[in-house]
Every structure is written in structure tokens, then in C-alpha cells.
Amino acid sequence: SLFKWHVFDNIFPGPDADRRPQAYCAFYQGKWLLINQALRSLTSPNGNRVEINQAVELREGAQICLSQEAHGCIVEVSVVNKYFFV
Question: Which GO terms describe its molecular function (predicted)?
Fold first, then answer.
């Protein structure tokens, strides 16, 4: 799962941190997907908004904007031995 401390560079995990998942990864029909649970401005590599309860495919080298809000992070997908890291 991705939490707010993964999405924003000014939020850190800790005892008082918001622990509600913002997104999660799933392997579905032969593809790795990032499923948006609560990100209001998640953006796919082609620039399209990914609505809540929708998914974006995780492909090698893809850059995904987790949030367009202040301090939002952009991640790049790396596939290693059929597993991925963002």
C-alpha cells in the first residue's frame, strides 16, 4: 500500500501519521496495476487523471505523478525480476 508519506515529500511516518491507504498495487490479468483509493490528482504517464477506484498500469520506466498538490511526488517504475519498485 501507498500512504501519504509515500505521496508527499513533507509527510513522514510516525505514531500520529494518517495510516489510511491512498493506493495499492495488484497483479491482474498479467499486468501490475496501481489502484487509486484516495488520491485526488493521481496522473498517468500520458497525463490523464486516474480517478478514485480506477487503475494505472505499472510499466518499466513509467513516471506517475502521485499528486499534483504542493509537495506531491513523481515516481518512476522499475521492474526487477518480474517484481516492481516505485
Answer: kinase activity
Closest CA to 2 of 60, 50, 61: 50
pLDDT of residue 80: 79
What CA–CA distance (Å, rounded) separates 33 from 64?
12
Averages of pLDDT over runs of 10 residues in the chain (86 residues) are 98 96 96 97 98 97 98 93 62
d(CA 62, CA 38): 21
From residue 40, alpha-carbon distances to 15, 18, 29, 50 in Å are 24, 16, 26, 8
**Contact indicator for 84, 64 with CB cutoff of 8 Å:** no
CA distances from 38 to 21, 35, 85 (A): 8, 9, 20
Strand order in the sheet with 23-28: 23-28, 31-36, 55-57
